[in-house]
């Protein structure tokens, strides 16, 4: 029998919803997800809703812990793409580019161990300003790409991507179909949540940046990573491009089609920037960078020809030391014991690590003598 029966999950982003589903599939009788923000809300502090959600790994070559979580996550997203089209998860041909050499001690091509049929791209297939790149999971593209797409004819990767609004709604529907509940409410402490949900034997903290402010957590190793993205209409774009961030640049360039005619263009990585307003100069730079990498976005009409649908800002929950996966025992004001576990601090890879970190948390709850992973 599972050591958790009645569970409350604080946080209704991708991490909280995925954690709740994982527990319901593994013995929990009742799981209630409680969030200040829920799918459908547009709030810069609710970072899940503005994610690009290309399921590639952000782990460094030395971060075996995150690599393991990402491996697990990629397998689950592939299952969803293969068996549950209503999830909004699909395969998308694409490539990964690099504009700089590896930092000392790093190997950006470590993914040779993560994906099958890995292959570096030949120099002749690279756009100007790109020094390297790779493909993985070979899929023969069925047509020669136009010259103005910047990519010559070669095998593409089949990358898994998620249409974020569709996928978050799918997670909610899955939660409810398994008997879970979703409630909108905010708390200023774990204690207040424990005291309100008297029947819960387990409380899971998936509040992301909220853990910086919870009175009885106050994790000041957390920091916001401001991201600004642009959603454009470009139904002719059918594959993803990603150019990795330069160590001295605040930008990374990515082009991620969502499968519904819209494309996510990004983006920025601004640590400790808390400006909630759209910055027009960043929007201009994002569009120019995307166009430079892939002029076919506007049919070679220039970066001023984009059909812009929205410009969005969000704050990802960065954390020194990475994701916090930890278990402890706390007590209600009436003396009842509650198991409290933490799963937060996913930074820019919340979707990419979601199923893996939730599985780790499951192991943590099942392990009587485990307190941290």
Automatic annotation (TrEMBL):
<comment type="similarity">
    <text>Belongs to the DAMOX/DASOX family.</text>
</comment>
<keyword id="KW-0560">Oxidoreductase</keyword>
<dbReference type="GO" id="GO:0019478">
    <property type="term" value="P:D-amino acid catabolic process"/>
</dbReference>
<dbReference type="GO" id="GO:0003884">
    <property type="term" value="F:D-amino-acid oxidase activity"/>
</dbReference>
<dbReference type="InterPro" id="IPR006076">
    <property type="entry name" value="FAD-dep_OxRdtase"/>
</dbReference>
<dbReference type="GO" id="GO:0005737">
    <property type="term" value="C:cytoplasm"/>
</dbReference>
<keyword id="KW-0274">FAD</keyword>
<dbReference type="GO" id="GO:0071949">
    <property type="term" value="F:FAD binding"/>
</dbReference>
<feature type="binding site">
    <location>
        <position position="254"/>
    </location>
    <ligand>
        <name>D-dopa</name>
    </ligand>
</feature>
<keyword id="KW-0285">Flavoprotein</keyword>
<feature type="binding site">
    <location>
        <position position="207"/>
    </location>
    <ligand>
        <name>FAD</name>
    </ligand>
</feature>
<dbReference type="InterPro" id="IPR023209">
    <property type="entry name" value="DAO"/>
</dbReference>
<feature type="binding site">
    <location>
        <position position="316"/>
    </location>
    <ligand>
        <name>D-dopa</name>
    </ligand>
</feature>
<protein>
    <recommendedName>
        <fullName>FAD dependent oxidoreductase domain-containing protein</fullName>
    </recommendedName>
</protein>
<dbReference type="Pfam" id="PF01266">
    <property type="entry name" value="DAO"/>
</dbReference>
<feature type="domain" description="FAD dependent oxidoreductase">
    <location>
        <begin position="7"/>
        <end position="361"/>
    </location>
</feature>
């Amino acid at each position: 029998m599972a050591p958790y029966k009645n569970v409350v999950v604080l946080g209704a982003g991708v991490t909280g919803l995925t954690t709740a589903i994982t527990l319901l599939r593994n013995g929990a009788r009742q799981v209630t997800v409680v969030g200040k923000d829920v799918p459908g809300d547009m709030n810069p502090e609710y970072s899940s809703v503005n994610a690009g959600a290309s399921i590639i790994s952000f782990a460094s070559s030395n971060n075996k812990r995150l690599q393991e979580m990402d491996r697990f996550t990629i397998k689950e997203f592939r299952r969803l793409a293969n068996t549950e089209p209503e999830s909004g998860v699909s395969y998308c041909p694409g490539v990964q580019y690099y504009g700089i050499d590896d930092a000392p001690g790093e190997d950006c091509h470590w993914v040779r161990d993560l994906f099958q049929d890995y292959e570096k791209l030949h120099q002749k297939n690279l756009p100007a300003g790109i020094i390297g790149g790779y493909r993985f999971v070979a899929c023969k593209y069925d047509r020669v790409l136009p010259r103005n797409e910047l990519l010559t004819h070669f095998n593409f990767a089949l990358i898994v991507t998620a249409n974020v609004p569709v996928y978050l709604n799918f997670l909610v529907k899955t939660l409810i179909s398994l008997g879970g509940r979703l409630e909108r409410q905010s708390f200023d402490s774990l204690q207040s949540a424990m005291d309100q949900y008297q029947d819960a034997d387990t409380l899971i903290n998936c509040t992301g940046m909220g853990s910086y402010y919870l009175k009885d957590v106050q994790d000041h190793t957390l920091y916001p990573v401001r991201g600004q993205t642009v959603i454009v209409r470009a139904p002719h774009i059918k594959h993803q491009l990603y150019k990795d961030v330069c160590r001295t640049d605040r930008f990374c360039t990515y082009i991620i089609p969502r499968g519904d005619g819209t494309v996510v263009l990004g983006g920025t990585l601004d640590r400790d920037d808390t400006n909630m307003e759209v910055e027009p100069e960043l929007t201009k730079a994002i569009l120019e960078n995307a166009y430079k990498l892939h002029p076919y976005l506007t049919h070679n009409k220039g970066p001023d020809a984009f059909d812009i649908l929205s410009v969005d800002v969000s704050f990802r929950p960065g954390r020194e030391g990475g994701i916090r996966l930890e278990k402890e025992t706390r007590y209600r004001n009436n003396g009842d014991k509650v198991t409290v576990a933490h799963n937060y601090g996913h930074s820019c890879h919340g979707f990419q690590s979601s199923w893996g970190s939730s599985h780790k948390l499951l192991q943590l709850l099942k392990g009587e003598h485990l307190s941290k992973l």
